[in-house]
Amino acid sequence: MIKVIIERKIAPDMESTYDANIKNTLRAILEAPGYLSGANYKDAQDVNHRVIITNWVSLAAWKKWRDSEERRHVISGIQPILITPEKITVLTA
């Protein structure tokens, strides 16, 4: 099993736009082969810093989702409101 941490910094006053779009992303990921679980977090000190932590059966499963057309489609609503590129960290036990 692997854990994937995705950090995003969104533009000020775009919280509701991000929240609406992330719900669509989390719905889509439920169907991704190899996806186990995940959660969406807000930084307690910075509402514009968002973190998603997901669990996958394997690195291959994560990479398949990461590179999929479906992921590109669902995150297309998020990318315009990011003030920095998303940071992805993959952890293994």
Describe what this molecule looks like in 3D.
The chain has 93 residues and is α+β, with helices and mostly antiparallel strands. 32% of the residues lie in helices and 37% in strands. It contains 3 helices and 4 strands. The protein has a 4-stranded antiparallel beta sheet with strand order 2-3-1-4. A hairpin with a 2-residue loop joins strand 2 (35-43) and strand 3 (46-56). The longest helix is centred in the first third of the chain and has 15 residues, at 15-29. The N and C termini lie close together (7 Å).
Task: Please trace the helix and strand order, writing H or E for each element.
Answer: EHEEHHE
Mean pLDDT: 95
Structural class by helix and strand composition: alpha+beta
Tell me the overall shape. globular
Low-confidence stretches: none
Please compute the radius of gyration using only Cα atoms.
13 Å
Give the biggest beta sheet.
Answer: 4 strands, antiparallel
Query: How do the strands line up in the largest sheet?
Result: 2-3-1-4
Count every helix, treating DSSP H or I runs of 4 or more residues as helices. 3
Please report the total strand number as a whole number: 4
Strand content: 35-45%
What is the CA–CA distance across the termini? Answer: 7 Å
Helix content: 25-40%
